[in-house]
Amino acid sequence: MMMQIVCLLIGRLLLICVAAYELLQQLGLRLHALARRSYDYWQCDQHEFLRRAKHQLEKLPQHLVLVIAPDDCYVDASLLKLVFGYAQVVGIPYLSVYDTRTPRLGYVELSHFCQPSGKSDRCYLWPLKQKKEQSLQPNGCKAVAANGTANGYASNGGHYAQLQVYQIGSSDGHALIADVCRELYENRTTTQVQEMLKQRQSLTDGIDGMLNKRLGFAVPEPELGIIFSRQTCTYGLLPWHVRFTEFHTHRSGRYFDAKSFAKVLYKYARCEQRWGK
Amino acid sequence: MSWVSDYQYTFIQKIAFQALQLSGHIPHHIAFVMDGNRRFARSKQLDKIEGHSRGFSKLADVLRWCLDMGIREVTTFAFSIENFKRSNEEVEGLFNLARDKFSKLLEETSRLDEHGIRIRVIGNLLLLPADLQRLIATAMLRTERNDKLFLNVAFAYTSRDEITQAVEAVLREDEQADDPLQPTDINERLLEACLYTRHSPPPDLVFRTSGETRLSDFMMWQLSTSVLYFTDVLWPQITIWNFLASIVAYQRDRCRLEDYRRGERLHSVQLAKSSEFYSLRVQKFLLKLDANRRKLLIALASN
Question: How far is residue B176's CA from residue B107's CA, in Å, rounded to a whole number?
């Protein structure tokens, strides 16, 4: 009995220590962000840094996915534009955003600053054509993002292709697979479905094709994911498509700049994908 | 080597164990991606199969820790369908290791009964050699009455294959049945009930070793609300302190995920209600699915 009380006290103390450490760390991160914000305001060409970093990377993801946790309060449209700009500078052509928040808690609607691609209602192009010309001005990095950095995406006048951006929602996860299953069930007497049922792989390929069609995805599966959250969780992100995605958690509240982005890319470039071998 | 080791705790380890047990929430279900066996073997200049064998020994320790911690369900990723791409020598070596371990398991079922451990192998068993299928099916049937600790071994498994077989199970529903499924019955709740893990809650914690931060097509459907814990240590090198660190991380992160998890649970309940998931028609279909799976196991065991 005595032993149990001692253990309980030790356990509680441990949890209090962890909570206190987390609180201090969060405070430290915000102070750090404040300091970096002021520094970056005067030193606006972070993209030159990324361009240099790009040459040292052995591989780059073709498709990057950003996951925003339901309780994150630091990711806003400015930060997303910043990340889009970084992706564009290093040459990542496709980017998906999975924002799990509600509009009341900061959900970012991509249509407010991206241009519809015309391919599907969830596919956008960034930057807007007319804004592109403006921000390509040599001094186009004066707009300051909410987390503090300059918001020009190509401050020295480099020309980049528009980024293809997908907005992913919670209904694109399990529910979409169920939709596909329902459609197959309704057509299960057709030759096409009967052919699929002859071999498991054919059915897998069939489901894959139908999911991509519904998502408007004509792009590779995401190879890299950045989770903006205090804990690592996929929050139901595309269970069919992210099986080999490398996830990196960027702790909510931590400052995000070109260096953070480059660090994630370096880590991705170093990791070896074995594909089961 | 037994499936559950006789791990001897030091005094400090006992205190740490009890402290975590008494002060915080213990995960109900942990999933392990046991990665790093080959890298461990390379670093110690051992044969690859010896690396896998050491990995299995570590699994026996981990199962003991889970049992003592009060964790009710453990899922391990032992062999992916993608692993068939490895050399014949390595694949055959892994199958031999599995043959050896499942034979041992059948010899010590009384010990498993004593701990109440039920073994379930999840995956496409038909891709395995016939003798291994027989061993696995026998082990599953022999332990099916145990209910204290569920050990799910993912063997010849990928999540994509699991989801595909769930869709396949729905599509193969007998058209001539008295009361066949209606298209409106089909939703994520029904598909979830057709997965291999249909009788398991989703994992609370997913633990991956060896520094990789991907999920390698493991339980992609089920882990949407799980805390993911990645550590750099190789699987055969994990210690009880790594295990306890993952429990602390879970206790820390669980509270923050709780709202999201509650929302998902609520959504699932509402979906089940609105789609007549509990109707006789759907429940009959699921019962038939269970019966067919058991029939398959009996057929494999008697091969």
Answer: 44
